[in-house]
Amino acid sequence: MIGKIVKQISNDYTVKIEDKTIVCKSRGKFRKLKITPLVGDNVEVDLNNKYILEVLKRKNELLRPSIANVDQAVIITSVSIPDYSSNLLDKLLVIIEFNKIKPIICFTKMDLISNEKRLEIEEIINYYKSIGYNVYINKEENIKQIFKDKITVFTGQSGSGKSTLLNMLDSSLNLKTGDVSIALGRGKHTTRHTELIELLGGLVADTPGFSSVDFKGMKREDIRDNFIEFNEYKQACEYRDCMHVKENNCAIKQAVIDGKILKDRYDNYLKFIRGES
């Protein structure tokens, strides 16, 4: 029988088959094949012995959080406690774009910042909208319509409000939320495993929060090519393989000078390709 893994705790995999669920173990052969079944995987199951026999071909996967076959990722981006991090947002966007997943940005805790800071954040929001991203502000815009018939992952900083947003969308979920450590500026890890939850006609994953990610498996060119606004200007660069760093007549660097590309984005790009962050 074919089903979908909707929950994993250690080596116990909850597989949904039609309208039923069954808890299975994975076969030892997966270790030899260096394949780890992930939440979101479509799998062949031995119902009698409760084993996962095969993992079907994936269209994509993420490592942190560990999940497969994702349609879209909602990046929960706090603007206060923890403070807004353009570095983490851009890093997540690049990784999600690289994995052929649609990114959606949701800014949270706007009510905790001053009017001056709000104007600054709104300029940032307008920029991300202008380059093609869907951007929402928690509790101020209707985000409910995006989930139907999709597998959605929530990700972002610890303490940024992922579980809080899910509870707002469906109070019956009653997901555990935690206070934010003022000293560390990050949240207590309240989500301990990855699980797909039925929500608003689709499946969403509330995943463990994290405050750092890396570009494992990505080359410098992959990072460059997934800064999506660069694509509008790169054809005007003097060199076909321009990395937009020290090259002469670089259209990307000129676009930054002209204010067409957000300087913070370009500065993050330089850090990423230099391995500085």
Write the layout of secondary structure elements.
Blueprint: E1 2-9, E2 12-17, E3 20-26, H1 29-32, E4 42-46, E5 51-55, E6 61-62, E7 67-68, E8 72-78, H2 86-98, E9 102-108, H3 115-130, E10 134-137, E11 151-156, H4 162-169, E12 180-181, E13 186-187, E14 195-199, E15 202-206, H5 220-225, H6 251-257, H7 263-273
Helix pairs in contact: 2-7
- Major beta sheet, specifics? 6 strands, mixed
- Written as H for each helix and E for each strand, in order along the chain, the element string is EEEHEEEEEHEHEEHEEEEHHH
Q: Show unreliable segments.
A: 179-191
The Cα radius of gyration reads 20 Å
In round numbers, the mean pLDDT is 86
Q: What structural class results from the helix and strand content?
A: alpha/beta
How many separate helices? 7
Shape: globular
Proportion in β-strands: 25-35%
Helical content band: 10-25%
